[in-house]
Each structure stands twice: as C-alpha cells, then as structure tokens.
C-alpha cells in the first residue's frame, strides 16, 4: 500500500510539473456549451440528439458502483473538474444518481482535456458518445467541430502526457 501511494504521489507530482510546463491547466481552445437542452423528463443516458462531429463522454451503465464512485471522486478531486453543478440546488443535481453525476463530471473532464480518447477512460468506467446527454437545465459541454489536422495534432500531443498520467493514476486506485 505504501509503494502504491508513493507511485501515485510521484505521478501526481509529475503531472503538476507537466501542467506548469504547459503554462497552466490544459484546456483546449474554444470550447462551447451544447446549444439547447433537451426534455427535462429524460435522464442523461436517455437522449438521442446527434450533432455532426460532436462528442460527449458518459459513464457506462454496466460498471459497479464502487468503481464509478472512485472515478467520480478522482474527476472532482485530483482531476480538477468543476463539479459545482452537481451540488444540491445546482442545475445538474437532479437526477441525484451516481450514473448521472459521474457522466456530467466525466464529460467536463473530457471536454477540458482536448476530447482525446484517453480523457474519457476513467479506468474503463466511461465511453464516448454522439448522443447529447444534456437535459432540462443541465447543459453538458460539447466538443468543437473537427479542427484542421495540424491544430488537432498539436492539441493531442499537448494532452497525451496528462491523459496517460490520468490513466495510470486511475489504474493505481483500482489495484
């Protein structure tokens, strides 16, 4: 257990170093919120809106609650995702379910970290979808339309280190 914590601490310190070298928190350029919210009676996993080229990251329904909670805790803690919308009274608090809250947090992290596949892994608890999970007053951030290949390559290379470290950190939590 001590060696696991030591490795995790080293990874977190290295991650901090990478973020400092990159000049602050890794945030992709020009993120926009989804244009419209969907019906307020539908939970996030039930919507079917597709906007060409737009993707979201949501929690898998088949994942055990313990793993989902661990990944949610990471996203809202060391992952630096803003989870204030999930607090009581927030626009995404209802439905007050682990799946709904995890989906919102996972998507926020995914959008803030360049929409790369690794930014939507969370130890195998999440998946990329083209279905807009927004509902009622809870609007999920969405990916920008596909950028030019050179700009996409620069953004991906900037986020690979952070994404790989996130994957390793989550993996260590499940050991």
Question: How many strands?
Answer: 4
The H/E string reads HEEHHEEH
**Which shape, going by the Cα principal axes?**
globular
Spatial order of the strands in the main sheet? 1-4
Please describe the biggest sheet, giving its number of strands, its sense, and whether it closes into a barrel.
Answer: 2 strands, antiparallel
Sheet/helix structural class: mainly alpha
User: How many helices in DSSP terms?
Assistant: 4
Mean pLDDT: 75
Return residue spans where pLDDT drops below 50 for at least 5 consecutive residues: 23-50
- Strand percentage, roughly? 5-15%
Q: Please state the CA-atom Rg, rounded to the nearest Å.
A: 16 Å
Helix content: 40-55%
What separation lies between the terminal Cα atoms?
9 Å
Which properties best describe this structure?
175 residues; mainly alpha; two-stranded antiparallel sheet; two-stranded antiparallel ribbon; 4 helices; 4 strands; 7% strand
Can you walk me through this structure?
The model is unreliable at 23-50 (pLDDT under 50). The chain has 175 residues and is mainly alpha-helical. Helix 1 (2-21) runs antiparallel to helix 4 and helix 2 (65-76) crosses helix 3 (98-112). The chain has helices at 2-21, 65-76, 98-112, 149-174; strands spanning 32-33, 56-59, 126-129, 141-142. Helices cover 42% and strands 7% of the residues. It is built from four helices and four strands. A two-stranded antiparallel sheet has the order 1-4. Strands 2-3 form a two-stranded antiparallel ribbon. The protein has one domain. The chain is globular, with a radius of gyration of 16 Å. Residues 1-23 form the signal peptide. This is X8 domain-containing protein. Keywords: Cell membrane, Disulfide bond, Glycoprotein, GPI-anchor, Lipoprotein, Membrane, Signal.
